[in-house]
Amino acid sequence: MNLFDVDQPEMLSISPDLRLRKFDTIVPQASSWYQDEETLRLVCRNKAAPFDKERLKRMYDYLEQHGELYYIECAENGLFHAIGDVTLCPHDLPIVIGDPVYRGKGIGSQVIRTLIMRAVKHGMKELYVEDIYDDNIGSRRAFQKCGFSAYKKTHFGHSYRLSTASLTIC
Predict the structure, then answer these.
(1) What is d(CA 93, CA 101) in angstroms, rounded to the nearest whole number?
(2) Phi, psi at 68, each rounded to 5°
(3) Domains in the chain: how many in total?
(4) Distance of alpha carbon 117 from alpha carbon 169, whole angstroms
(5) Is the separation of the CB atoms in 89 and 66 below 8 Å?
(6) Helix, strand or coil for residue 91?
(7) Per-residue pLDDT for the chain (170 aa), expressed as one digit of tens each?
(8) Residues 6+ apart with CB under 8 A from 69
(9) Of 84, 167, 161, 153, which is closest to residue 127 (Cα–Cα)?
(10) Has residue 148 been placed in a domain?
(11) What angle do CA 159, 96, 78 make, to 5 degrees?
(12) ∠ Cα 5 23 34 (to 5°)
């Protein structure tokens, strides 16, 4: 989906070892992320069934149609590889650090900050996260660090919002 008057960039550089790459096809790593019990708990709540290829395709098709979908890539030994995904949507900013080795290292905050800057540059007045489960402490901290605050209770957590007028870039 074209959110702005410009095309989605192929790459958004975050640091020498971290970047966002525009989604173009499902990478093999993605299947393992959405098979992982902990990832499923954080994304879908308790006892969610692992994603088969068709469900994974439907999810990525939906995200691509509703926003700018990127893979989160880290460099290791000079080669970038996907470790998660993120989508900048008008009313949501879903992010998954799918490779558990990279969780808790501040990558989520760096990715969120990069997409906040992109959204602000292109005139978005508010950013939203549809739902963060209350027990997803890492995700809550990452979004709060970047200036988001809870504004609405959901079944298992809260929706979060950031007004760019009161922007605090993390």
Answers:
(1) 22
(2) -95, 110
(3) 1
(4) 8
(5) yes
(6) coil
(7) 678 778 899 999 999 999 999 999 999 999 999 999 999 988 887 778 899 999 999 999 999 999 999 999 999 999 999 999 999 999 999 999 999 999 999 999 999 999 999 999 988 999 999 999 999 999 999 999 999 999 999 999 999 999 987 654 55
(8) 22, 23, 60, 63, 85, 86, 87
(9) 161
(10) yes
(11) 145
(12) 135
Is residue 45 in a domain?
Answer: yes
CATH code where residue 40 lies: 3.40.630.30
**Looking at the domain assignment, is residue 107 inside a domain?**
yes
Residue 77 in domain: yes
**How is 2-40 classified by DSSP, letter by letter?**
--SSSPPPSEEEEETTEEEEE--S--HHHHHHTT-HHHH
pTM to 2 decimal places: 0.93
For residue 101, give its domain range: 11-166
